[in-house]
Amino acid sequence: METIVQTVDEESLHQAAEVIRAGGLVAFPTETVYGLGANALDAAAVAHIFAAKGRPATNPVIVHVADRGDVTQVAAQWPEAAARLAERFWPGPLTVVVPKSAAVPDIVTAAGPTVAIRCPDHAVARALIRAAGVPLAAPSANRSTELSPTRAEHVLKSLNGRIAMILDGGPCSGGIESTVVDVTGDRPRILRPGLITAPMLEAVCGAVDVAGTTPGVARSPGLMAKHYSPQTPVVLAPTAAEAKRLYQHFQHASTRAAVVGFDPRFATRAMPNDPRLYARDLYATLHELDDGRFDCIIVELPPDTPAWAAVRDRLFRAAAKN
Ligand code: TXA
Ligand code: MG
């Protein structure tokens, strides 16, 4: 299959909507990362997503809607916490997990009773959903376990020949995937940290749990450790001094190391000292350093605070071996 890359206009949106309605795949920009969209109500179309990504069937996908009101199509219940969170953060980088309606095929939810829904804060994403006339099942538009795409060229690098079309809407402003919150229990539970931080959620709906730190509670099925990884090994350094020490060690061993850190005098890529700006640049930086020039990528970890939780989560996954 030839993958066509189109800039966004009325004509290409119309064409993309046609592809979706015919059961095909279209990669499109959102405010977080590029998504790989299919008609969420068509099991065969969603199966193409899993095939193109090499995604395990145990990992459910997020359903994207153009408006808050459209959740009734895919949610069987809309708990109070979901209503509050959607009111405050939609459109935006927040995904809520709620009981699914009968209209949602099993393949979307990995046969589970819940569905993850979000309303993206991106004009192209919402225009495409509206033009297609159906909610879009869309994981990030990359091969499974690889780095997520924040530009059309990242999508092309990973999925060329495997999908019908890429709508090029320029770089994503958010840069990392949405916060995923399960609101089916007594207390909202963060399954995946993102740009909407725990304190931001708590200001709207009271105390929240964080999966992975709650004893006995399983994480989201798709949250295997290795994910969002470049081909080049990533080594994490807890401090700038440790990053320097590692760099010198590798240099001594004739290992070509790149450093992603905060000190512009030392780092190969100096990163912004603000979590939102760091997130925006993170995947693009790793994509860029992952072109074969380096044997490893040393990353100086940002501080262990709620504001940096999502960035740290993605860095730990990028460095995970499996
Ligand atoms: O920002 C984003 O969320 C991007 C853009 C394209 O919207 N999408 C994205 O999708 O990151 P994906 O498939 O790469 O990640 C979806 C995450 C996975 O960790 C998956 O396990 C979780 O959401 N998830 C999906 N449905 C779920 C469900 N019913 N229950 C629990 N977790 C779910
Ligand atoms: Mg993904």
How would you describe this structure to a colleague?
By secondary structure, the protein is α/β, with parallel strands linked by helices. The protein folds into 2 domains: 4-210, DHBP synthase (Alpha-Beta Complex), CATH 3.90.870; 234-319, Rossmann fold, CATH 3.40.50. 32% of the residues lie in helices and 18% in strands. It is built from 10 helices and 15 strands. It has helices at 10-21, 43-53, 80-89, 106-109, 123-132, 152-159, 198-205, 240-252, 275-289, 309-319; strands at 4-7, 26-28, 35-39, 62-64, 94-99, 114-118, 136-137, 165-168, 179-182, 189-192, 209-210, 234-237, 257-261, 269-270, 296-300. The strands form 2 sheets. It has an 11-stranded mixed β-sheet with strand order 1-8-2-3-7-4-6-5-9-10-11, with helices on both faces. The longest helix is centred in the C-terminal third of the chain and has 15 residues, at 275-289. The protein is globular and about 60 Å long. Bound molecules: threonylcarbamoyladenylate and magnesium ion (MG). The site of threonylcarbamoyladenylate has 30 residues, from strand 5, strand 6 and strand 10.
Quick recap:
With 322 residues, the chain is of the alpha/beta class. The protein has helices spanning 10-21, 43-53, 80-89, 106-109, 123-132, 152-159, 198-205, 240-252, 275-289, 309-319, and strands spanning 4-7, 26-28, 35-39, 62-64, 94-99, 114-118, 136-137, 165-168, 179-182, 189-192, 209-210, 234-237, 257-261, 269-270, 296-300.
